[in-house]
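**Paired protein data**
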Amino acid sequence: MPAVTHTSRFFVNARPVTDLDDLKPHIADQDRPGDLAIAALADRQHGIVAHWQLVARGYTRHQIHGRVRAGRLHPLHRAVYAVGHRSITRKSRWMAAVLACGQNAVLSHRAATALWDLRPVPSGPIDVTVPGRGKTGQRGIRVHNVRQLHPDDRAVVDGIPVTSLHRALLDLAEVARPQQLRLAIEASDRLELFDLRAVDAMLARSRGRRGQAVLKAVLAELRGPTPWTRSELENAFLPLIREAGLPEPQVNVIVCGDLVDFWWPEQRLVVEVDGYLWHKTRRSFEDDRRRDVKRQLAGIRTARFTDLRVRFERREVQSEMACLLSAGPGALASDR
């Protein structure tokens, strides 16, 4: 009986191979980071990855360049790639610009206000702010070097590192016309994102910035010659009630577990006076509406008057208050 010799047959690229030396690169590939990890990273970053991110995940320079040669990674900037194809979106380009400037970079200035939906998408180079010195731009990227960037001046919108909304307004003040800045501020207020306290804190830690004077001037124009605090609003509303000969309310009392500005217990009516641009954030907006519903379920009406109405529509406010107070507990407030 003839001896039986067992040979193994391997296939590389559909070619039968018996020499194990031919298999070494392919066997070694099994222990290397694969394309799935790159795809997962790109999926979180609008289809973009950076060389430094791949190195941090265990890819060698040879492996990265091999994928470039094979058409799996497409260079967009120096050491920044689109994964799989070059058909990328606007947000992909923003992400690529940020990644091209390093780990601490953020989208800024006009591009940041566009990402925050405050202004139209700008043309020209993409603005990126980078803490530290010496970082230079690449084609299509305009770099703004700063000594440091406070954590409160950073944010992430749709996965893209970006300056906070209020820092973006300060940056915009340095490069845009005052009217453009005004429109951006008004847009931030409509989106319930503007917070004057956050702006004040940001300005306090950004002394010396060229945009400070412009931003302060536009804010002063928007809020009028005299900024009204909550107490000033309350002090203005109370004489308005007295002038009209209406019943005196209780002031700053707890109703349904919450502090309210004015309370008429007999009429079961709460009145809140609100600053339009200066006391609202998304959270406070939601909290106000939640408290309104809670009071309504308890049979309590709530009416809200803005600072502008209290100052400039006194007669109308007095007339509406007279109707509210005469309507009785079962009526609904119309000034919401």
